[in-house]
Amino acid sequence: xxxxxxxxxxxxxxxxxxxxxxxxxxxxxxxxxxxxxxxxxxxxxxxxxxxxxxxxxxxxxxxxxxxxxxxxxxxxxxxxxxxxxxxxxxxxxxxxxxxxxxxxxxxxxxxxxxxxxxxxxxxxxxxxxxxxxxxxxxxxxxxxxxxxxxxxxxxxxxxxxxxxxxxxxxxxxxxxxxxxxxxxxxxxxxxxxxxxxxxxxxxxxxxxxxxxxxxxxxxxxxxxxxxxxxxxxxxxxxxxxxxxxxxxxxxxxxxxxxxxxxxxxxxxxxxxxxxxxxxxxxxxxxxxxxxxxxxxxxxxxxxxxxxxxxxxxxxxxxxxxxxxxx
Amino acid sequence: xxxxxxxxxxxxxxxxxxxxxxxxxxxxxxxxxxxxxxxxxxxxxxxxxxxxxxxxxxxxxxxxxxxxxxxxxxxxxxxxxxxxxxxxxxxxxxxxxxxxxxxxxxxxxxxxxxxxxxxxxxxxxxxxxxxxxxxxxxxxxxxxxxxxxxxxxxxxxxxxxxxxxxxxxxxxxxxxxxxxxxxxxxxxxxxxxxxxxxxxxxxxxxxxxxxxxxxxxxxxxxxxxxxxxxxxxxxxxxxxxxxxxxxxxxxxxxxxxxxxxxxxxxxxxxxxxxxxxxxxxxxxxxxxxxxx
Amino acid sequence: xxxxxxxxxxxxxxxxxxxxxxxxxxxxxxxxxxxxxxxxxxxxxxxxxxxxxxxxxxxxxxxxxxxxxxxxxxxxxxxxxxxxxxxxxxxxxxxxxxxxxxxxxxxxxxxxxxxxxxxxxxxxxxxxxxxxxxxxxxxxxxxxxxxxxxxxxxxxxxxxxxxxxxxxxxxxxxxxxxxxxxxxxxxxxxxxxxxxxxxxxxxxxxxxxxxxxxxxxxxxxxxxxxxxxxxxxxxxxxxxxxx
Lengths: 326, 292, 243
Hints:
The complex is a heterotrimer.
Chain A: H1 2-29, H2 33-58, H3 67-84, H4 88-110, H5 115-134, E1 145-146, H6 164-185, H7 188-198, H8 200-205, H9 210-236, E2 238-239, H10 241-245, H11 247-260, H12 267-285, H13 293-308, H14 321-324
Helix pairs in contact in A: 1-6, 2-6, 2-9, 2-11, 2-12, 3-4, 3-9, 4-9, 6-9, 7-9, 11-12, 12-13
Chain B: H1 3-34, H2 41-59, H3 63-89, H4 96-119, E1 135-138, E2 141-144, H5 145-167, H6 169-179, H7 181-186, H8 191-213, H9 223-238, H10 243-263, H11 269-283
Antiparallel strand pairs in B: 1-2
Helix pairs in contact in B: 1-5, 1-8, 1-9, 1-10, 2-3, 2-4, 2-8, 2-9, 3-8, 5-6, 5-8, 6-8, 9-10, 9-11, 10-11
Chain C: E1 5-14, E2 17-27, E3 32-36, H1 43-51, E4 58-63, E5 66-67, H2 73-79, E6 81-83, H3 96-104, H4 111-125, H5 140-152, E7 158-162, H6 170-185, E8 189-193, H7 197-203, E9 206-211, E10 214-219, H8 221-226, H9 228-235
């Protein structure tokens, strides 16, 4: 039984490596910039959703305010670069650390709140941060920050001639998020998070310090999300409060995990791969009169999944049957 | 800033607060009834506003007259949402929290998308309604008539709700189901019927608010989102499940919003509400009057 | 030799209600002690006070020589107190073995060791065949055993059982009794709250009877069962029971 479990773990790793390898070769065949753009976004959302999944899926603390960390990551990188000339690579780490610290600080009051109170608190906190940034002149207020791009540079993590470096970074980020989840899944943290999610009282009786557990999940989740935000800032080279801290981001980080399978290893990836291209393509195919269609599409998907298959789509794939048992 | 301006602002805030209470009470009712937060509540408001707009634009029915119609339509809509969506959501065994949140959230997104698709994102407004744009002076304070009427409607609604819940059979069934759905079933009351009617009532109340608000707010697909947050904050502040809490919470929110607008730039006016909300909820997780 | 667990002058008030008044009991190492009494006697309250779910209004609790009165539940588990819940609280989205691994992880962070320990405990409790089944699919008596298995995985010195034998069929109850005896045989002390007298009395070494929040009587089961105060408490006429 032990070896069957270890086998499954190894197989997950092998499958991930294969997928990553295949994904890495795709840009060699697909040269269309528009499609490459979708791929970059898909990978980014896979990474973001995987990070969100750590706190909200595994640990069960559903957050709809994760745009806060995304935005903090974006702003930290952008501000450090434009105001102090700090390279985005350092800015990224800085953004991650700041987000982790803030996530834990917010955890103190928030983790005492029950289910829906917690969700609403996360929404309110993110909205508050949005409003503050919109009125913070030093950070560009509502006009935001323009990151000056002067040609390709790995040092400054900016590229004009091709989207490929962004693609590979996003792929790397998605892989890192996946690996972190894979590793944590079979660790004390992973088990204790799931225990906290299912029954905090029982978890406590078994020695789990529920509060610390939640804090750990929040910190890891926020850190990774912020890195995604930093990446995004460099990718689009212009950020403003609405575009990086808006509620739509919080939602878009959650939906792939919900669709694919909340609290599962592959759920966020599967969800992102389905949802992001779908929304981008519906948006452009139906053209000008298509506004709102992407919302209709993924709104409907989410309602259907929540009602008909709350464990997500991931269980439909046979080799994931054990996951579906959860 | 004179004392006059302050009183003006606060009076205005009080009126808005009553309206916020009206929007929020439906949410509180639904939650108190079945422990589900309707994350599509803002969108209920949105379609009420659009319905009012279209009745006015196509049939020249003034919002004051169409309000009962809109409320009735929302009643049907609310009941339908329960029967077609929520009823299944509450049966979830695994990931129950996620299911409840995302089923209504998904609905909200669909509704917003449909509104964008059919009505376009253009801002609409109800021009030249009976109430619109008029102000009335009471004891030297200038109060906008739509908000004043809205506040009166809200008060009437709360009084009506009070009598309904405490004096009618159905109202008592509502309360009883709230207390113990299982026991109620044993007595022969169909739980689904009670829940559907509860949702209908909750939706009708926000429908009423929407009809009045259409006279002085712009109407657009995302209008529900900002009011939804205020509604959640109001209910959480007053305490989920407490009808009186929604009323009191609304007043607090209205006053806080007005006071904040006096001190901070208009773009930051919501910060006061959010700050108060976070403060109350951190200190007293169940809100001011909540029991859950 | 000091007792493993001692409660000294425990009072617990909930608002105006006095759930436990001046309760001083002790549990010796290696004993199986039954905590019994009619409904509303304060057994659950005392149980939860020992488990760390509530703090006493007055009094102290000493476990293995240490005053644990201020210690939260999670830390009490670390010290060696494990408990089951009357209304079973399994981790429904996790498999049986994963449930137990959660418990095992307090003693080791090495996953392989935790997994091995979980297997061992499942074997011990007769649930090995159900290891990979989601906990939500177990039948009630299996869920009870899972509660015990999970608690045992934490390698407790004292196991608190909350009505584990209530509501079981006679055969299931007998299996349960065997399990409790097996647990004690491994050196774990057991304190069990129970209602079902016929099952519990042959099992325990000593019985503590609570009534109206106070300790009524304690001693060997045979004696306790015949004590007129106990009979009166269970069968009626509370006014006759003095202070």
